[in-house]
Amino acid sequence: MKNHKTITEHLFDTALYLFLTGIFLVTFYPFWNILIISLNDATDSLRGNLYFWPREFTFASYVTIFRNPEIWSALQVTALRTVIGTAVSIICISMLAYTLSKRYLLGWKYFSFFFVFTMYFGGGLIPTYMVIKALGLIDSFWVFIFPGLIGVFLMILVRTFIEQLPGEIEESAKIDGANDLQIFVRIVLPLCVPVLATIGLFLAIGHWNSWYDSYIYTYKPELKTLQAVLVKILNQFQTGAMMTDAQQMAQNAKRIPVSSESIRMAVTMVATLPIIMVYPFVQKYFVKGIMMGAIKS
């Protein structure tokens, strides 16, 4: 027997789709506007009224950015940092979460309190810098990896997810002679793929967007991350934008295809597009992982 919707249900569905479409347009259009400004001739952009597509299409802003030799080195450092940092953090967080999910662990309350305490209290910038310097991590690639190796909030998500798994699975594995390491690798990790994909996205975004640690802990140009170099380029063009009206008119007369605004828009796209492209691959795990890792029965 077919289930026919009532008129009220059709009206509700239509209103819901319209509302969601409106939310999508409101959130997507600013990003689209940044894209079209970055792809439009800078002089033409001064006329304004750029709403849906570029009037004078050009890649000049992107060419200006990628002509900077620091960009390619920074891109490699950032990509390497994102891949290694995310992978190592997932391994360490999952191992710690599995350990702390065992409430029979001797001193479980004290260990849990120790990690949660670090979520709310820290030593501050100067003590942190002194510790990192004492560890010999200044001007080292590993300064991007070790200080943020464990995210306590993410560890709690994974721990809660593991606690939701049926205990009978581990008990049967122990009866078959499996030890804790074998249970963790062969049983727990495959079942934790949704939550691990979720925290992996958080970690990857954090590594990709990070620039402050590169700013204060590294001095070698070859260790600068992409975001740090983009901030440097952005500051250079913002400084260059401080000119008199006469200079601005002269620039317009020469039809220079880039400006501080077009560079800012292009920098925004370069910084955000790569990590946005990763999201579709983990989106199917995202909701399941975050919900099951956050709700405790």
Write a concise synopsis of the structure shown.
The protein has 297 residues and is mostly helical. 72% of the residues lie in helices and 0% in strands. Residues 242-250 have low confidence and may be disordered.
Describe this structure in words.
- By secondary structure, the chain is mostly helical.
- 72% of the residues lie in helices and 0% in strands.
- The chain contains 14 helices and no strands.
- Helix 3 packs across helix 14 and helix 4 runs antiparallel to helix 10.
- About 3% of the residues have low confidence.
Spell out the blueprint of helices and strands:
Layout: H1 7-38, H2 42-45, H3 60-66, H4 69-100, H5 108-120, H6 125-134, H7 152-163, H8 167-175, H9 180-191, H10 193-209, H11 212-217, H12 226-240, H13 245-254, H14 260-294
Helix pairs in contact: 1-14, 3-14, 4-7, 4-10, 4-12, 7-14, 10-14, 12-14
Shape: flat
pLDDT < 50 stretches: 242-250
- Helicity range: over 70%
Q: Mean of residue pLDDT?
A: 81
- Gyration radius from CA atoms, angstroms: 25 Å
Q: Count helical runs.
A: 14
Taken in chain order, the helices and strands follow as HHHHHHHHHHHHHH
Largest sheet: none
* N-end to C-end Cα span: 37 Å
**Multimeric state:** single chain
How many individual β-strands? 0
Which structural class is indicated by helix and strand composition? mainly alpha
Task: Name the beta content range.
Answer: under 5%
